[in-house]
Amino acid sequence: MTAVKTTAGQRRQEAGWTAAIKGRLQQLLAFASLIVIYAFFSFASPFFFSYGNFMAILFSTVVIGTLAIGTTFVIITSGIDLSIGTGMALCAVMSGVFLVNIHLPLALGVPLAILFGGFMGLVNGITIAVLRIPPFIATLAMMLVAEGLALVLSHSTPIYFNDVAGYTDLSIGNLIPNVPNAVLILLVVAIIAGVLLTKSVLGRYTYSIGSNEEATALSGIDVRKWKIAVYAFAGLFTGLAGVLISARLGSAQPATGMGYELQAIAAVVIGGTSLSGGKGSIIGTLIGALIISVLNNGLQIMSIPQEWQNVILGCVILVAVYMDRIRKKEA
């Protein structure tokens, strides 16, 4: 009996090692793809390989990366969130409402705008976990609601932050010379999210729900409560992205946001997170976001028309999803 237990334990341990090795290999593959793409554009254009352009790539990664980090938690639970793009626009508008219309101080208005994103995520979580509406439909509805509210609250016109001292510095300021503050913020929140995903109860249950929701529920874990927590936590990143993009533009653009959800989801999948749930990492997501930013930047420098840029990005997404299916079959 002891021998049987030992053998079973060894098998579980070996399976864990195998999964960990596969996860590292996926990250290395994504990183290698990033290096290859970066090298290709460096040789293809004399204007690509420079420090200024490198920082421009990092700066353009901030919004997609921030959205993708929150989306990573959702997709690991085998969920989806289509509302993050228009939700980001709504949070940007709310930032304008708090700071420009109501004249709240910066230290209060910015956290409230971020918390508003968390509130949107909370509503998504309740709709999905309590009302049992499929994530695709629930977040699609929220996407439309957020798009409409952004236009209503802003009266379909941009809200400018010209009189809000220090707001634009959140994104384009430089605590470190030649490094935008937005890049530093992305790095900090990525580290925090990575620690929470790998070391906290929230992260452990996120993986567990995505791996086997039924077994997780049978083990005594309140799956509904933790699903709501995951969507609410992811919503905070939507709020932060809204603040960062409006600080970068110096205005809250109510029509901004459409399409960002697709790029964020693509970054998560390209980075190795499985659409079927249970697998994923913040490092992989950041690599995926960088791949998208490098592609967009390189194609623009090479003067590739926007419509062909969309075609190429769509092909990259198809390849990433196909690779995810292959990984699922091999598992």
The low-pLDDT segments are 1-6
- What is the subunit organization of this protein? single chain
Indicate the mean pLDDT. Answer: 89
Distance between the termini: 29 Å
The tally of strands reads 2
As laid out across the biggest beta sheet, the strand order is: 1-2
Strand content: under 5%
Overall form:
globular
Computed structural class: mainly alpha
In DSSP terms, counting alpha (H) and pi (I) runs of 4 or more, how many helices? 13
Main sheet summary: 2 strands, antiparallel
- Sketch the topology as an H/E string, one letter per element: HHHHHEHHHHHEHHH
Helical content stands at over 70%
Radius of gyration: 21 Å
Structural notes for this entry:
This is ABC transporter permease. InterPro entries: ABC_transp_permease (IPR001851). The chain crosses the membrane at residues 28-48, 54-75, 82-104, 110-131, 138-161, 181-202, 228-249, 282-302. Pfam families: BPD_transp_2. It is found in: Cell membrane. With 331 residues, the protein is mainly α. It has 13 helices and 2 strands; from the N terminus they run αααααβαααααβααα. A two-stranded antiparallel sheet has the order 1-2. Helix 2 packs parallel to helix 7 and helix 8 packs across helix 10. The radius of gyration is 21 Å and the shape is globular. Mean pLDDT is 89; it is low at 1-6.
